[in-house]
Amino acid sequence: MKIGIIGSGSWGTALACKAAQAGNESWLYCRREEQAIALQTTKENKEYLKGVILPDTLTTSSNLKQVVQDCNILLIVTPSIYVRSMLQQLRSLVSAHTTVVICSKGIERETGKRLSEVANEELGTVTSRLAILSGPNHAEEIGRDLPATTVVAATTKETAEFIQKALSTYNFRVYVNEDMIGVELAGTTKNIIALAAGIVDGMALGDNCKSALLTRGLHEMTKFGVALGARRETYAGLAGMGDLIATCMSPHSRNRAAGQKLADGETMDYIMNHSNMVVEGFFAVKTVYEVAKAKQLDMPITSALYEVLYHQKAPKDALMDLMGRHLKDEMFL
Ligand SMILES: NC(=O)c1ccc[n+]([C@@H]2O[C@H](COP(=O)([O-])OP(=O)(O)OC[C@H]3O[C@@H](n4cnc5c(N)ncnc54)[C@H](O)[C@@H]3O)[C@@H](O)[C@H]2O)c1
Ligand SMILES: O=P(O)(O)OC[C@H](O)CO
């Protein structure tokens, strides 16, 4: 099978390695021709996934048509802010037999739409085979072929199982889940909690505090997802709790690291302008905050982080406000 990967950052590169390892013809699209040539000749993506040797069955190209033509599966792995414009470029190249899988984690900033909704708007007249892939997946570890799992949810179970078979390897176990909304929103909202987890680490608030943040964070993620049509059970699975743990605990997480830098006194503007890597939680917090407000959902951690990131509230004041909230029943959604 031919698998095209759109986005040659760390996750796109790691997924391209997996697609090749699973026995497929793997085509990685690079926006810049010099990057495509560098990756092909050095067999390494030094900028985004240093130290991972690219397999010989992985081809890089800056020619979008060459990558997309006759693809059975197309993985979309750009940062969420570029997904719509990328899908618009793909519309004339994708055919009815192409399965399009969104692997980015986020929701559209301007509209609050899920990326699979955006994909349906942009490609729905061309293909109905749309899917989401999400889970506890640090590119650095998957690139090194450490054992990992992920979840795929699609418009039909048959489509999800098709992707499952195409991408699974002896060390990469792909599960399917019927809840597209939950898989997608869990992957988006865990980045918000990961930013907060980095602040907790940076302020040395301790393990009790961090585990409280993760637990109450999962509660808040679930509340948001269920209000938007997700299934509660999804949040106890790999795309929910699994990814929350991976992102909040890992030294690889860019979201967690950004939170830690904030606690160390760097500004969010500085952090965003001094990294070539995407910090999705920064965008997600604003959009999720606005959607939650419109739906009158009480999202205290998201709201606190929104104040810290967008209105320069001091993290210690946000913490005091969270701890001083009215006392309540733990399970009340
Ligand atoms: N890195 C991971 O471990 C990981 C794992 C799972 C999901 N994701 C998700 O995958 C998505 C991509 O993240 P990443 O980590 O691969 O990216 P990255 O941070 O490693 O790299 C940034 C990417 O943005 C691309 N880019 C920059 N400007 C662009 C533009 N104008 N148009 C299109 N692309 C542009 C760059 O080419 C590069 O591919 C994100 O939504 C992220 O949350 C990442
Ligand atoms: O490095 P982060 O924080 O973008 O997280 C990467 C993945 O989403 C972890 O599953």
Q: Topology, pairings included?
A:
Blueprint: E1 2-6, H1 10-21, E2 25-29, H2 33-42, E3 58-61, H3 64-68, E4 73-76, H4 83-90, E5 99-102, H5 115-123, E6 130-134, H6 139-143, E7 148-154, H7 157-167, E8 172-176, H8 180-202, H9 207-227, H10 238-249, H11 254-263, H12 268-273, H13 280-294, H14 300-311, H15 315-323
Parallel strand pairs: 1-2, 1-4, 2-3, 4-5, 5-6, 7-8
Antiparallel strand pairs: 6-7
Helix pairs in contact: 4-5, 8-9, 8-10, 8-11, 8-13, 9-10, 13-14, 14-15
The structure holds nicotinamide-adenine-dinucleotide and SN-glycerol-3-phosphate.
Residues 7-12, 31, 48, 77-80, 82, 103-106, 137-139, 277-278, 280 line the site of nicotinamide-adenine-dinucleotide.
What does this entry look like structurally?
The chain is α/β, with parallel strands linked by helices and about 325 residues long. The chain folds into 2 domains: about 1-180, Rossmann fold (3-Layer(aba) Sandwich); about 180-325, N-(1-d-carboxylethyl)-l-norvaline Dehydrogenase, domain 2 (Orthogonal Bundle), CATH 1.10.1040. It contains 15 helices and 8 strands. An 8-stranded mixed sheet has the order 3-2-1-4-5-6-7-8, sandwiched between helices. Helix 8 crosses helix 13 and helix 13 (about 280-295) packs across helix 14. The chain is globular, with a radius of gyration of 19 Å. The N and C termini lie far apart (about 45 Å). The model has no long low-confidence stretch (mean pLDDT about 95). The structure holds nicotinamide-adenine-dinucleotide (NAD) and SN-glycerol-3-phosphate.
